[in-house]
Structure formats: C-alpha cells, structure tokens
Q: What sequence folds into this?
C-alpha cells in the first residue's frame, strides 16, 4: 500500500509539472486532491491495516500528501504570477506616445464676428446692450418717425406676429432692424448714451445676398454737441479695426425717416484698393468703382429724440445700422458667394473658419 501511495504521489507531481493553465490546475485539484480522488480512496484503506502498519503508512501518506500539496501551491503561485504579467503586458500604457487630439469645435462665423465687433466698439466706450427681437410697431417704426401709413415702411418687408395689438404700441413684429433699440435705450433715461445693439433681424427676403433671419449691429450715441465728424470718426475707426489699416469709409447722401441728414456708408474696396480697377486695367469684379456699400447712418432725427423723451434742443447724436453677415462677407479673406450657406449647418463650410 505504501508503494502504491508513493507511485500515485509521484504521478501527481509529474502531472503538476506539465500543467500550463489555471483552468487545468483547477480541474487537477478537484480530481486528484478532492474527497473523491484515488489518493483519498487509498487512505480510506488504512483502517484495514495492523496498528503498527497503520502508523508508519499513515505518516508516510501524510508526508506524501504534503509534498503534493506543496507542489500544487508552487504551481498555482507560478501560474498566477505569469497570468498577471500577461495581463499587465496586454494592457500596458505607453505614456510617452504622443496623444490623439479629440476634434474641437469653435464658434460660428457670425458669433465670432459679433465678438469682434463688440470688442472694437468697446475700445471707444460703446457698451453692448440687448433689446427685444420681437417688438411692438411703436419701437420698430412709429417712434422712429415712420407713421403707420408711411410708404417707407415697405422697404423693411416685415413679418407681423399673430398676437393681440397693444392699445398704444400697436402690432407686434419680428424686428426688421436693430433700430427698435434706439427709443428703448433712450427710455432707460441715462444720458449720455453710447450703445451697440447687436441682434437678430427678420425680413421677408431670400436670395444669394439675403437670408430671412440675419443680424445687425446698431450704434447710437447721444450727447451734447455731436456732429457728423464724430460719426465719420467712429465709422473710420471701425473700418480700420475690422477690415485693416488702409481701409476708409465715405458717406453718401441718403434718406431715412429717423435720421437727418442720412447717409449710406461705403467702405473702400480691399481687392482694387478703392480704384475700381485691377492691375492691367480690368474692372474690379467685387466693387462698384472702388467702393462697397455697408449700411445706413445719420444724425438722430429730433422727432426720435422726442419719442424717447429727450430734449432735442439740448441733446443730439448719431446712429448707424449695418448687417453683420454683409460686413463679414466683405472682409478680405472671407469669401462668401451665397450668404445662405452661413445657416445651412454644413460642416465643410463652417470648419474653414
Ligand atoms: N435701420 C436701418 C436699416 O435697417 C439702418 C440705419 C440705422 C440707418 C441707424 C440709419 C441709422 O436699413
């Protein structure tokens, strides 16, 4: 019996030496070391031996069992450490490899232009303000010296909101220009005023140079002793800062109901340098005779000051209103053939800026 036990123990240690995975080791444990193992079955036979033999064989059996157990434990430790090593190898992170940059978005072209415009005017003391983009007829037209039946209103191609009229302020409209902010700003009753109102505007128009929703920036300055030269200085400051140091503006006589005198503001063309001609004498295809039309401006009409409860004998000022998209499209380096592409959310276009 002792011999048998020794043979069995040797066979088991040999088998253990050949075990390669933790799974194999686990089934070895169940089959060869468990209660139903051959070794255990043999041990049960000890009872049938003489007390002498039982003692010596029993001691030998214990020793053998301990030896096998030790071999088993050693194997287990070995397999566990190599599998942990394999895992560590597979999941190793090389911290010296250069990273992969996640794609990063940026502000929309229009938002970028709005920030730039705001900063340019802030440097000369204008504060950005916000006024409603859905407003009463009174602020959009009537208070701006445009009575209800006046034909000049047609130019603003207005969207009317299907809402109850206000007994004093009339119909509700989607603001067709930022000039509604003029009298609203005057109502704050803080003088002097130096505001820049940038907001969404809406008009019933859509083609390569018009979108029904667009943005304007409206400058308004109210103070004592203000003249056209101040207006011209502010506009030239903007032109130089936004378009470049060699750009200038010119004022052309025009007509708005809410300014007197009124002007259209042009900026010298950045392509032909204001000459209207390219090198070699060809006509510049971007501008009309060296100038690009930017927007409207003028000296605030006394009736508008009165609507804002400001005394026109003491106070005066100027206002101007330009389209953000249009101004942006005229900046050299940004070429937009069809302005509608700005709001089509096409990444191929937007990513470029
Ligand atoms: N509101 C005018 C427009 O939309 C522009 C303008 C603003 C003109 C202020 C004069 C003064 O065309």
A:
């Amino acid at each position: 019996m002792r011999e048998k036990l020794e043979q069995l123990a040797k066979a088991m240690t040999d088998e253990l030496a050949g075990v390669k995975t933790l799974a194999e080791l686990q089934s070895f444990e169940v089959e060869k070391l468990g209660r139903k193992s051959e070794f255990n079955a043999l041990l049960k036979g000890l009872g049938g031996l003489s007390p002498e033999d039982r003692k010596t064989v029993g001691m030998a059996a214990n020793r053998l069992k301990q030896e096998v157990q030790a071999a088993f434990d050693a194997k287990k430790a070995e397999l566990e450490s190599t599998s942990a090593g394999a895992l560590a190898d597979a999941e190793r992170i090389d911290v010296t490899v250069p990273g992969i940059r996640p794609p990063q978005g940026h502000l929309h072209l229009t938002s970028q232009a709005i920030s730039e415009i705001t900063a340019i005017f802030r440097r000369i003391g204008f504060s950005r303000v916000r006024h409603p983009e859905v407003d009463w007829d009174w602020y959009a037209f009537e208070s701006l010296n445009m009575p209800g039946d006046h034909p000049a209103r047609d130019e603003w191609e207005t969207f009317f909101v299907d809402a109850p009229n206000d007994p004093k302020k009339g119909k509700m409209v989607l603001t067709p220009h930022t000039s509604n902010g003029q009298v609203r700003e005057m109502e704050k009753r803080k003088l002097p005023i130096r505001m820049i109102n940038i907001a969404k505007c809406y008009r019933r128009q859509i083609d390569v140079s018009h979108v029904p929703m667009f943005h304007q920036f409206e400058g308004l300055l109210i103070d004592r002793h203000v003249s056209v030269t101040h207006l011209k200085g502010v506009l030239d400051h903007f032109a130089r800062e936004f378009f470049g140091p060699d750009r200038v503006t010119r004022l052309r006589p025009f007509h708005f109901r809410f300014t007197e005198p009124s002007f259209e503001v042009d900026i010298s063309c950045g392509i032909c340098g204001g000459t209207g001609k390219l090198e070699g004498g060809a006509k510049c295809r971007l501008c009309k005779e060296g100038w690009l039309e930017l927007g409207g401006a003028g000296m605030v009409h006394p009736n508008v000051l009165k609507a804002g409860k400001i005394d026109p004998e003491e106070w005066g000022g100027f206002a101007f209103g330009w389209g953000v998209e249009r101004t942006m499209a005229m900046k050299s380096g940004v070429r937009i053939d069809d302005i509608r592409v700005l709001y089509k959310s096409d990444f191929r276009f937007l990513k470029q800026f």
About this structure: The longest strand covers residues 213-223. The pocket of phenylalanine is lined by residues 177, 179, 218, 256, 259, 295-298, 319-321 (CB under 6 Å). The radius of gyration is 44 Å. The first helix runs from residue 2 to 18.
